[in-house]
Design brief:
CATH architecture of the largest domain: 3-Layer(aba) Sandwich
Radius of gyration: 30 Å
Helix content: 40-55%
Number of helices: 30
Number of domains: 4
Low-confidence stretches: 1-7, 662-671
Distance between the termini: 68 Å
Structural class: alpha/beta
Largest sheet: 7 strands, parallel
CATH class of the largest domain: Alpha Beta
Strand order of the largest sheet: 3-2-1-4-5-6-7
Length: 671
């Protein structure tokens, strides 16, 4: 079958336009005049449509069938299905539309035609399912007008497609809250006891990027109210309804809550109770067991991010450097992705398990191995990590700061953090027991990078500008700190701020509109100062940031990997620590290097330091200090030795009873 992109002569388009306007006589005259010197299939196609509109269905079918034998394009087959329908041959029309969808899955008119045929056949659920496919494809293509048409059609049917959950989550994640809620309301009208739909609906209150601080407060309050209502429903729900909702755990998660700059502990506790109840109904907790009595403690690392990713970069050396005389290491890769980084990590493990499993499959695989300890480098980003993390699959369970927010799960025993990044009183920010590992908590090894630099002109940067690299995800930049960019632009007319954001995405649109409005209000030209680059692959990221002069750390959610890479690329750092661990990564990194004096003490100091670094000599001086001290970031073995002691202590405490010789060996002390 030919592609839907097969070129069509201009006269055919003209003829089809005339048919659409009802000018059948003109269309026929044009077609007959051009039929002799045009491709026969196109001429037969156009003439068949004319006969169809004239009501001569049999003649239309004859012409369209003849055209089909010559050049069966998607448009022709769809129109042939329409002719079959008008001839009362609905079953044949359905089969043809299905065949067309299979052969040309991107040709949307076939889906519309099939949905209408299902309505005519009285199968409203099948029609809704077809509209659901159209909606998902439109959401992927960010064709929101098509999504709105889909929702209107579903409301007319009074049915919800079976892919309602996927569709609602796609719309929610992409920032189309109104459309996501419309899909969820259709589902809840049909199934009021669907707790999974209520969970997704609660998450729609968490916007990716906010237009202002008032919106953050409003959204946070709405989310809190929705979760309070959901927890009440969970408390009285039937086990079957709880179990059915488990499929949404991990997919519908409060990822964007933690980017509002507030302490989320109480909200995370409620979230943890809700999703743990759902998962427990679906997967009853196995009988408690103490750690096994074997020569080595069996530790499993559970992550979808063993390939080149911020998580693997931070925590890979834990896997490599755990003492193999005391520890057996199993890697559980929650994906099938493969690259050199993943292969290296797999080679360090005593056993490495990967594959395309669902949560039940991974649960079975992990329980069969009976690990003494499970460590999740992150919980909060990947669906399976959330689903598994809220279950008790090992006697000792810990999470690290790959996503530096408490899980809220009663099943998670420890939060493995950095002594240099945690604020005083940081224990109160976690439902887990906080473990402050020495230094940065990681034995970071820089990955090899080349010396490439992206061309400034290609990025929209001026050669003579002082370029401040602001390369965090846009949701890390809170409205309360927009004043920083305004103040720097006022002080430095040549300053440019390089952000990363895909054009057209709702988050980029909202953030850009917010910042541009603030600049105009301050009588500043946003086009002179604000530059947005498309996201790049990880291996191209160093080349991107090297195009700048200064790395301007995001306030409230600091850079971790990004800061380490900026230092490796010889960019001077401007950072301001805040009251939560996630706002203190860069400060911890600089402190480890002995550069604590370069860390800002407040917003004014932050801006002052940023302005000072507009001077090339000041920049060069700070870069030289960073170069001389960056060796202190690499190969630190203190964290992994402390991790070993902590794991031994945790395992000993759960053995029945712990042996005195272990307790007397001084294994519990952290260094």
């Amino acid at each position: 079958m030919t592609s839907s992109n097969t070129p069509t002569p201009h006269w055919i388009e003209d003829a089809l336009g005339l048919i659409g306007r009802g000018a059948l006589g003109e269309a026929e005259t044009l077609t007959k005049a051009r039929l002799a010197d045009a491709r026969t299939a196109d001429g037969l196609h156009a003439l068949g449509l004319i006969r169809l509109e004239q009501g001569d269905v049999n003649a239309a079918l004859t012409l369209l069938r003849a055209a089909e034998h010559l050049l069966p394009t998607p448009r022709l087959l769809h129109n042939l299905a329409t002719a079959l329908e008008r001839a009362g041959r609905v079953d044949e029309a359905v089969l043809l539309e299905r065949r067309l969808i299979e052969a040309a899955p991107d040709y949307l008119p076939a889906y519309r035609g099939l949905a209408n045929l299902m309505v005519r056949a009285g199968d409203l659920q099948a029609a809704a399912d077809v509209w659901g496919v159209i909606g998902a494809r439109a959401a992927e293509a960010r064709a929101i007008d098509v999504v709105q048409t889909v929702i209107a059609s579903l409301k007319g049917l009074g049915r919800v497609p079976r892919n309602w959950s996927r569709l609602a989550n796609m719309l929610r994640i992409d920032g189309h809250e109104t459309e996501a809620v419309a899909v969820l309301d259709l589902r809840l009208a049909d199934q009021p006891t669907d707790l999974g739909a209520l969970l997704i609906k609660a998450m729609t209150h968490l916007k990716v990027v906010h237009a202002g601080e008032a919106e953050i407060r409003d959204r946070r309050a709405r989310y809190a109210g929705a979760m309070e209502y959901l927890e009440a429903r969970v408390g009285t729900a039937a086990p079957v309804d709880l179990a059915a909702a488990a499929v949404e755990v991990g997919m519908a998660k409060p990822f964007y809550l933690s980017y509002q700059g507030e302490d989320d502990t109480e909200l995370q506790k409620r979230y943890g109770r809700i999703v743990s109840a759902m998962m427990a109904a679906r997967f009853p907790e196995p009988a408690p067991r103490p750690p096994a009595d074997r020569p080595r403690i069996r530790v499993g690392f559970v992550s979808a991010y063993f390939t080149l990713h911020s998580v693997s970069k931070l925590f890979r050396t834990w896997i490599r450097d755990l003492d193999r005389e005391r520890f057996e290491v199993i890697g559980y890769q929650l994906s099938t992705d493969v690259d050199a980084c993943r292969d290296e990590i797999a080679g360090w493990c005593d056993r490495f398990v990967s594959g395309d499993r669902d949560v039940a499959g991974w649960r079975e695989a992990i329980l069969a191995d009976a690990p003494d300890v499970l460590i999740y480098p992150e919980i909060g980003m990947h669906t399976l990590a959330v689903q598994l993390g809220c279950q008790r699959l090992a006697p000792v369970q810990a999470m690290a700061w790959g996503h530096p927010v408490t899980s809220g799960f009663a099943s998670m025993d420890y939060f493995l953090s950095s002594a240099l990044m945690e604020p005083e009183g940081g224990d109160a920010h976690y439902t887990e027991t906080l473990v402050r590992l020495p230094g940065l908590s990681i034995g970071y090894d820089p990955l090899p990078i080349d010396d490439a630099v992206m061309d400034r002109a290609d990025l929209g940067l001026r050669e003579d500008a002082v370029v401040y690299v602001c390369c965090q995800s846009l949701f890390k930049y809170l409205p309360r700190h927009d004043e920083v960019f305004l103040a720097l632009a006022m002080a430095l007319p040549d300053a440019q701020f390089l952000f990363i954001g895909a054009a057209g995405q709702p988050a980029t649109v909202t953030f850009r509109a917010r910042l541009e409005a603030a600049f105009r209000k301050a009588a500043l030209d946003p086009d002179r100062h604000l530059v947005f680059a498309d996201p790049v692959m990880p291996d191209r990221f160093p080349a991107l940031i090297r195009a700048g002069d200064v790395y301007l750390d995001s306030i409230g959610w600091s850079g971790g990997n990004t800061t380490l890479e900026a230092i490796a690329c010889d960019l001077p750092i401007v950072t301001l620590p805040t009251g939560l661990m996630r706002g203190r990564h860069s400060a911890g990194i600089l402190t480890q290097m002995g550069l604590g004096d370069t860390v800002a003490t407040d917003v004014v100091d932050y801006m002052t330091r940023a302005v000072r670094l507009a001077d090339p000599e000041a920049r060069a001086a700070l870069v030289e200090r960073q170069k001389a001290a960056r060796f202190k970031l690499y190969g630190d073995q203190r964290p992994v030795r402390a991790l070993e002691r902590m794991l031994i202590r945790a395992v000993v405490e759960r053995r029945t009873p712990p042996t005195l010789d272990e307790a007397d060996q001084g294994l519990f002390a952290q260094g």
